[in-house]
Design a protein that fits this description.
The chain is an alpha/beta fold. The chain has a single domain, classed as Alkaline Phosphatase, subunit A. The protein is 33% helix and 14% strand. It has ten helices and twelve strands. The strands form two sheets. Strands 1, 5, 6, 7, 8, 9, 10, 11 and 12 form a nine-stranded mixed beta sheet that branches. The chain has a three-stranded antiparallel beta sheet with strand order 2-4-3, with no helix packed on it. Strand 3 and strand 4 form a beta hairpin. Helix 6 crosses helix 7.
């Protein structure tokens, strides 16, 4: 069980589109890699070695010190049974931790409910980016979804008093007012009212969002840092995460994403740029936290919905199965976890890496060893855990 001086915090960074595991943690010591990848491969002399068999993509130079310092765990062969090659279905599986059924309740939403069962803090979870990822979706769990922290809020052209009044009217419009006085003379409803519940939820969501926006503005006002972030979308998102974290607003779960990993074509240039952007932004984020002595209670999970096909298509790679995930942070016990998937033709599934460990093992490790929360009801089963925290 992880022991930290402060409540543990998780930052989730989704690599959207299906990151190519083979060109991220490159098996440069295995000749099968170069046999299977005649074109879309990382030359051996460009790999950043981490041992005699594996190395990072050269664009991951800013992340290499995490590995060298024992603060980066690589989870190899991560996936799930009966892989689905649709982005949307695969992401839903990762979001809900339910590969066998269609579900809507997010695993992080369930975690937030356990951390703050009465929803006392509307900022227990904050997502940076457009839209709310399903991983955080759960009825009754407020989540602040922020596109740009500096301009976050609702009805921002109104004064604070006018804005609050408008949102209260919005809430009243969606509240049917049924039995507000609790009068026994009003007949009990015999069946649930799903439409009314949705409308009341919308009204409460507006009020929660405004409350969160008001508080989040203090994070911008308080923030001072000498760390320079890259002027990329992921750089600015992680800067926003640092601002909120350093404002000490009680946020325990942060979420953000970086798009573009669906590299069917021109992969060599695109993948290199993507990993440079991610690596430099993550390095700046942790440097910022360390400058403020606020890194000891933060870990970051990087994941992607699936890997890529083993054999390249001449310009890129197509949808695959088994991939990798990474967990970084000062509290992380670095190293390789899980078996690196075999590249032998006989071990591939439809030309794809076969997964060697269920992604819910990584989730369970984070839930129980980092947050001290029971994993089984969140990931819908019992799974082997790793020792990276």
């Amino acid at each position: 069980m992880a022991i930290t001086r402060k409540p543990p915090t998780l930052v989730v960074l989704q690599l959207t589109g299906g990151n190519d595991a083979l060109n991220t943690v490159v098996p440069y010591g295995n000749p099968l890699y170069y046999d299977q990848r005649p074109t879309v491969r990382v030359p051996e002399d460009q790999v950043l070695p981490i041992d005699d068999d594996y190395g990072f993509h050269p664009s991951m130079a800013a992340l290499k010190p995490f590995w060298d310092q024992g603060k980066m765990a690589i989870v190899n062969g991560i996936g799930y049974p009966k892989p689905d090659y649709s982005h949307f279905r695969s992401m839903d599986i990762w979001y809900t931790a339910q590969p066998e059924t269609m579900a809507t309740e997010g695993w992080l939403g369930k975690l937030v409910r356990d951390l703050d069962p009465q929803a006392d803090n509307v900022l227990t979870a904050v997502s940076f980016g457009r839209g709310l990822p399903r991983a955080l979706s759960l009825a009754g769990v407020p989540v602040a979804s922020v596109a740009e922290l500096d301009s976050y809020g609702l009805l921002t052209n109104l004064s604070s008093v006018q804005r609050q009044a408008a949102l209260e009217v919005f809430s009243w419009m969606y509240d049917d007012g049924w039995n507000d006085q609790g009068l026994p003379s009003v007949p009990m409803r015999q069946t649930p009212d799903p439409v009314g519940e949705v409308l009341r939820y919308m009204g409460q969501t507006g009020l929660d969002a405004q409350k969160g926006a008001t508080i989040l503005r203090t994070a911008v006002e308080k923030y001072r840092s000498s760390v320079s972030y890259p002027k990329t979308s992921i750089g600015q998102s992680l800067r926003g995460v640092a601002q909120v974290k350093l404002a000490d607003l009680g946020t325990r779960v942060f979420y953000t994403a970086h798009n573009g990993f669906d590299t069917h074509g021109t992969q060599l240039a695109v993948h290199a740029q993507l990993w440079r952007e991610v690596s430099e932004a993550v390095a700046a984020f942790f440097a910022d936290l360390r400058t403020h002595e606020a890194a000891d209670d933060v870990i970051m999970l990087l994941w992607s919905e699936f890997g890529r096909r083993v054999r390249d298509n001449g310009s890129g790679t197509d949808h695959g199965a088994g991939g990798i995930a990474c967990v970084l942070g000062d509290a992380v016990k670095g190293g390789m976890y899980g078996e690196y998937s075999s590249l032998r033709d006989g071990d591939l599934t439809l030309g794809n890496l076969t997964y060697t460990n269920d992604f819910r093992s990584t989730y369970s490790t984070i839930l129980e060893r980092w947050f001290a929360v029971e994993a089984k009801p969140i990931v819908n089963g019992t799974f082997e855990q790793f020792a990276f925290v």
